[in-house]
Amino acid sequence: MSGLEIRAVARRGGFTLDLDLRLGGGATGVFGPSGSGKSTLLHAIAGLLPSELMRVAVDGEVLVDLAAGILPPAHGRRVGLVFQDHRLFPHLSVQGNLRYGMVPGGSVELEEVVDLLELGDLLDRLPRECSGGQRQRVAIGRALLAAPRVLLLDEPLSSLDRGLKLQVLPFLRRVQERFRLPTLMVSHDLSDLLALTDELLLMDGGRAAAQGDLSTIAADQTAVELLAGSGLSFSLPGHMVRRDETGLGWVALAGRGSAAPADPAASEVACGDVTAEVGDEVEVILGPADIVLAVPPMDARLSLTNHLAGTVERVTRTEARCLVQVDCGLEAPVLAEVTERAVERLALTPGAPVVALFKAQATRARGLGAARTAPPR
Amino acid sequence: MSVVAILTPAEWGTLWLSLRVSLLATAAVAGPGVALGWLLARRDFRGKLLLDTVVHLPLVLTPVVVGYLLLLTFGRSGPLGPMLEALGIEVAFTTLGAVLAAAVVALPLVVRSVRTAVELVDPGLEDAAAVLGAGPLRRFRTVTLPLAAPGVVAGLSLGFARSLGEFGATITLAGSIAGETRTLPLAIFQGTQVPGGDGAALRLTVVSVLLSAAALLASELVVRRLRRGAGGGQT
After folding, report:
1. Whether residue A174 sits in one domain with residue A92
2. What is the pLDDT of residues B94-115, one digit of tens each?
3. Is the pTM of this model over 0.80?
4. Chain A residues within 8 angstroms (CB to CB) of chain B
5. Shared-domain flag, residues A69 and A94
6. Do A290 and A317 lie in a common domain?
7. DSSP notation for A71-98
8. Residue A363 belongs to a domain with what CATH number?
């Protein structure tokens, strides 16, 4: 069968990892609360942790099958693992690091990876002479040059601040487009995952709590609770239309389907933090806690710049708060986090008209690069 | 007066013997010392504590006891005596005995230093090497050893310096035979014991101090160089 099959049971102290997964051949985003076993899964697949049961197959080719006695050690698995802390060899140059895992006559050329990840100027440097983003790119290149059958990325962006992250993100996308390796990427940042992966795997307590795209996962009550607990943010695709004199970037959000919105200006939002040029495809990233919901008609005059009108699609109650999913006619739903009291006071039930309000300053827009054509849903 | 005339021919002989014994002893413990240091740093096994204790015993035992134990083990009437005799190897009261005595007291210093150095190498880097396809030997050779090199060099220099100064175990196992086992410390002691030997004792003392200082200095310079190369501890 095509795609990535993983069966893994591993124990570590009192923690048990127990997964049986069939994933597509593309990139899968792995997320979940801390301690849910995300890194354990990756390390077990790579052979760095002993497991009680392990089977990994890529497009039907079995890489590991403990039950069948196919259990190569870590150095014989052809699994690429990029660590959160890059783990470059400090005593080797960038070139030395890149070449470390190269197989003679392997399918991946050094020049190709160097070009793809723009490492040409760094080859003679030591890792400590590179920036955080550059080091992570070297680590990605090093993993690719070992010609792996599966690529595992363990929070490759989380040690980087936002600026540096933007030095790595577009490269990860290039890698996916060029190598098309089955990939598992662990991240806490849902928008990174949405930007880079085709499918999501939500983990909790060592098990798969949900699997699928965001809308599938958001339809699941428990999954949404976990989502809310893991520092959720969500993103809305669109393109940047202009930058105004106050420095705000204006993004026209992509509507759903072919029908053009009645009023294009109604789906434009202002973003205080923009890393894109006019005309670029972008994603607008918002936290549900930053969204205020109001019920029309709106007669009060507000200082808030951004208004998106829509209808309540679903209200998910968790212990402490409610997550309201609002359909604003956009490609992705708007998620707002409000109190139980607000839900009752505003009578937020499915179908109710509602306006989502948020400050331009709480909104960031991130360029997706020219190569990107469609959102990952 | 030429430089050679600073020491008598016999004193030059002593210096040369000392250097030879110490270098041979250091060379002999390099392999086992690195292996034991790595084993104690990276592996858990039954009897680890026992091995650790036995290796470090010469550090705390009086060298005379070490020498006597070696004599009991390797001497003609010892358990290994007949086997060694059959091979034509004689340990007691030979240069080889002096080397053995020096090696045994130097070993714990090398092991301790290597162990600490290996413990400081991030095992995560070894994991990264494994995932990149490197087997255990290649991981050790290309990642662990280069990163632990400053500690290995420091340990070997300490071992060398300790070998140079070895007295008790040497005199017990190998005696004090001029030209064969009478190394610098033994010759100095001898000088203080015979009438008119003070001059020789003083000259050899100066030589000892200079030699040990030079060994430590050279080691420090090498370690600094290696540290710079290895990234100054940054991972």
Report:
1. yes
2. 999 999 999 999 999 999 999 9
3. no
4. 46-48, 73-81, 83, 85, 87, 89-91, 100-101, 103, 126-128, 142-143, 146
5. yes
6. yes
7. ---GGGS-EEEE-TT----TTS-HHHHH
8. 2.40.50.100
